[in-house]
Amino acid sequence: MKRTALVFFVFAAISSILYAQQQKNKDGMHEGEPIHNGFLKASQYLEFGKDNQSVYAMGLMDGMYMSPACSAKASNKVLLEIEMCVEGMHSTQVAAIIEKCEGPS
Question: For the chain, what is the domain count?
Fold first, then answer.
């Protein structure tokens, strides 16, 4: 069951990342290609317990780290900045950052 949940969260993370990149479109990444909206809304994430938020955060980060395997640019500036920012953090710390994020204005 845990593995199924982790796989689900990894796919959700990857699709969310790609969707966010399409919206920003700073690097022209996946320009013109349809990208799924993701499986969760922010309100659904906030309804999770702390343990599930932590697991989601791990899947989100793993999804970002694995995005070059899905033809994303390994040199993507945003990805590199996030990677440097969270290096050495525990998943609960990343989950706390996600929870406090207000998102795009």
Answer: 1
3-state secondary structure of 16: helix
**Smallest Cα–Cα separation from 15: which of 33, 31, 32, 39?**
39
Residue-number span of the structural domain to which 23 is assigned: 2-100
43: its two tokens:
């309100």
Three-state DSSP at 68 gives helix
- pLDDT, tens digit (0-9, with 9 covering 90-100), for 55-104: 998 988 888 888 777 777 777 787 888 888 888 999 999 999 888 876 66
Could you tell me if residue 101 is left (phi over 0), alpha (psi between -120 and 50 degrees) or otherwise beta? beta
Tell me if 61 is assigned to some domain.
yes
Q: pLDDT tens, 2-61?
A: 666 655 565 566 666 666 665 655 544 455 666 667 788 888 888 999 999 999 989 888
- Identify whether 105 is part of a domain: no
One-letter amino acid of 100: K
